[in-house]
Amino acid sequence: MKFVVIGGDAAGMSAASRAKRNQPDIEVTVLEQTEDVSYSACGMPYNIANPSRELDDLVVRSVKEFRDNGIDLKTGHRAEIIEPSLKMVSGKTAIGDSFKLSYDKLLIATGASPTIPKLPGFDLPGVLTLKNLEDGRKIKNFISSNNVKSAVIIGMGSIALEMCEALRERKIDVVMVKSRPGLLPWMNEKLSEMVSEELKANKIVIYDGHEILSIQKTKDGLKVVCADMELDSQMVIAAIGVTPNSELAKSAGLAVNPDRSIAVDKTLLTSDQNIYAAGDCADAYNVITGKKVWVPLALRANRAGWAVADNVTGSKTELEGIAGTAVFKMFDLQVARTGLTVSEAKAAGFDPADVVITSRSRAHSHPGNTTIAVHMIGDRRSGRLLGVQMVGKEGTAHRIDAPAVALHSKMTVKEFSECDLAYAPPFSPVWDPMLTAANQLSKKM
Amino acid sequence: MKFVVIGGDAAGMSAASRAKRNQPDIEVTVLEQTEDVSYSACGMPYNIANPSRELDDLVVRSVKEFRDNGIDLKTGHRAEIIEPSLKMVSGKTAIGDSFKLSYDKLLIATGASPTIPKLPGFDLPGVLTLKNLEDGRKIKNFISSNNVKSAVIIGMGSIALEMCEALRERKIDVVMVKSRPGLLPWMNEKLSEMVSEELKANKIVIYDGHEILSIQKTKDGLKVVCADMELDSQMVIAAIGVTPNSELAKSAGLAVNPDRSIAVDKTLLTSDQNIYAAGDCADAYNVITGKKVWVPLALRANRAGWAVADNVTGSKTELEGIAGTAVFKMFDLQVARTGLTVSEAKAAGFDPADVVITSRSRAHSHPGNTTIAVHMIGDRRSGRLLGVQMVGKEGTAHRIDAPAVALHSKMTVKEFSECDLAYAPPFSPVWDPMLTAANQLSKKM
Fold this sequence. Notes:
- The structure is a homodimer of 445-residue chains.
- Chain A is an alpha/beta fold and 445 residues long.
- Chain A folds into 3 domains: 161 residues, FAD/NAD(P)-binding domain; 123 residues, 3-Layer(bba) Sandwich (FAD/NAD(P)-binding domain), CATH 3.50.50.60; 119 residues, FAD/NAD(P)-binding domain.
- Chain A is built from 13 helices and 25 strands.
- In chain A, the strands form 7 sheets. In chain A, strands 3-2-1-7-18 form a 5-stranded parallel β-sheet. A 5-stranded parallel β-sheet of chain A has the order 9-16-10-11-12, covered by helices on one side. A 5-stranded antiparallel β-sheet of chain A has the order 21-22-25-24-23, with helices on both faces.
- The longest helix of chain A has 15 residues.
- The termini of chain A are far apart.
- The interface between A and B is large, with 68 and 68 residues.
């Protein structure tokens, strides 16, 4: 059995390793276009924050380790054409040689790439993105070799916000800008105000709703030109979002969604019965709506890689789907979400009721208390919990996992409100903020 | 409608306040034998740690506030006899006057009292317990007026362990002793070793398995006499455990369990249709086994108080039960549990499989990583998750809530292992320690 994997990061290497563990005599080949495999991409902002660390510290397992485990790991190999009818993949190596490989089962794990707007100047030197290790190295080198003291970040998503903290650590002045209004438009105003206050407290200047027209070179650096203003800096980070890398799949005739993610079933199979897709390039089922979504996150990539390996090696595995749980840190703030927002709930046909509460991170009178804000959403018709968003300084990141589990088990808000959650004064009020929100939402519904 | 509540802490005051909110014209009388109501008993160790704070800081709502809300709150009123056939409660006030009250509905919320072994010397001055605010004041006064520099804590439960930290904050040398072997016998050895190491690192001396015979007065203080040794100190804290205060209920002919907790149904009704019981004096259903348990914890007391109020004021409310979720902090360690231990699982008729794993609190290569140990237990026959115990330095307390929710919804280990939990490098590895445990346990089962 020949199992070929295109892409050597989270989903790809998880699948390759597990397939080999499951079935030691399977032939596993991985084609990776860069020289880097199996690294923690999410760790890059924290690594960039620290000039004394190398990006290679983020490598989880080396090329040699994978090869020692019997995986034929070919770096510098870019897959360019899949021929499903012949079960062949062909492409070019970094030095320009052609290669061609046959497979019995193929996994496309090509990830996603930073979205670059079709505007002038985004290709200028000093306009950087952050997706793979090489991007991280470029940013770090650019900062040191140009002694960067000022940067503009385009975009205000989680990577943009994580990069704020990283750049402030490097004593770089940061201005954030984006064309559309709203710092985090999916978030309730009360919560997003906490985020915006934290940014301001850390001297980040925020310009949302300023249409970006171009980036231009100046004498000392770069200029982001908006419809109504210009922003000068030495470096620009474009962190608008990412787009699934699905060109290969599309050219091979596989089903691809309008958002460009590759359509897969619960076994991660694409529209071809010998080709799987997993990770940031593929879609997934949302456990709340039962509908397809595309959420590029690390855990589901790893999990999907494992599921592909199990399916390829003969133990049929289905993944129910994702709740859309995500968390990020921004200076002292923790921002977390799981499930649907109010507008997502409406779009999915629910009749959402919601509450926003603020509570404390620790018990009444316990020193060190900070504020936690919780936005909780339920469905009036079924009583089901639909989603939770949270902002706070401590205990927010891990608190989101409880409602995430509740979403997987389709609990009602009332059932969730009756759960026996942990209490001790250093960690929460007797009624955890999550329960306070659930109690109030349950009453409202 | 006359609603009388015996006991003015968590369950009692929650019930009184909510009944009044639900139905403003209800007559609510609370009989509290001490002068303190509505305080955070769990906060006492942290308050004792800080000489500049008053125990009264732990009061959540004052007597006056309750009275202003229309509750007839009678402090210094000790209920002594309940006559169910007459629907009467009688007792004595602190100054010795008799009182007698009729009720339509009665709530017994008498809490629990520290267990005092029937051994000589436990009544000596300087042998102290910690349950109510007055106990806290006594400990604090004793420490300052005697300039206490050494203490023996008898018992090794959560209060004993929290008191270790409190006393070390006050620069008091602490020795812990108990008659039975095992620091935390319900805990897996690997996890309890982490606890014992943390205690040792903080210069706490642990003597488990030394049969305690008596406490004796010495020239300078007290001596705890064991079968094989003697321990000298200025102060002894007896923190062996607590016993439900059910004498009143028993004398009134209500059903009381062998462990002395008052038997209640899911609506919190005792064996008398006009008498409820809630809080540390009452039992509850365990959501995993469906059987009765007695777990004296603050959240379930508050929740049960609310449920009683709802039932008394006409909206029938049932509580499914508790998962037995508990957490405590001990120096830098967080110790958490939910559900059953292996031996509890066996006793309940399950066929338990379990794994103990250690993982990291943050992502691979993220600075500040610490170890988290997870002990997870599942049922071989049904595949169900049965319990989780955890020890770690960060993110342990809140992590326990996810499996607690899974226990409420009777998830299998496999289902739990597929939950979409949060990941970001500062907060967890891609595979959260909880998921790593679930993955391994699922494979084993």
